[in-house]
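Chain A, query sequence.
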Amino acid sequence: MTAQARRKETRRATYQDVLDAPPHMVAEVISGTLHTHPRPAMRHARASSGIGAKIAPPFDFGDGGPGGWWIIDEPELHLGEDIVVPDLAGWRRETMPEYPDAAYCTIAPDWVCEVLSSSTRRLDLNEKRSFYAREGVGHLWFVDPDARMLEAFELREGHWLLLATLADDAPVLLPPFDAITFPLDALWPEVIAGAGKAE
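Chain A, predicted structure.
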């Protein structure tokens, strides 16, 4: 192997690689490796939007709830050399008193939710789970639209503790948002037979 090939092989991905990624792809850098995947499919997007719709009014805007949070869809996080884009993230206002006026955030969130899909499942459950623990994210939710499940974890002494596994129409009453409850099946769209097929 030539010296040039070795340099190319060991080159660590940077923010420029994220900027250079195709516009229809989500690009992330974890431990120097660039990961790209397509934008979320409709079932994935519905689950992510549904969680935001349930949590943001009482926690971000204080409508019928305690307020005190920023709840953001797909924020770009720059933490150290790593760049990740969770499906949803939340910051307590004391963690991030001022909302950043930038293309990305450099403060680790207090809560992250990842919606699993075939293109992101391995990365979400492995590298990104470890990354969130390393950065001290207090709460991590995994939502699986295909299995109609939600798993909630809390960070304890650097390790993830499983708090609950919910399925189907179970009530969602979970930290850090246990001041409200909503049925899990609110996240699952009714499947319309033949939808999307050519007439």
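The CA atoms of residues 49 and 73 lie 8 Å apart. The longest strand covers residues 159-167.
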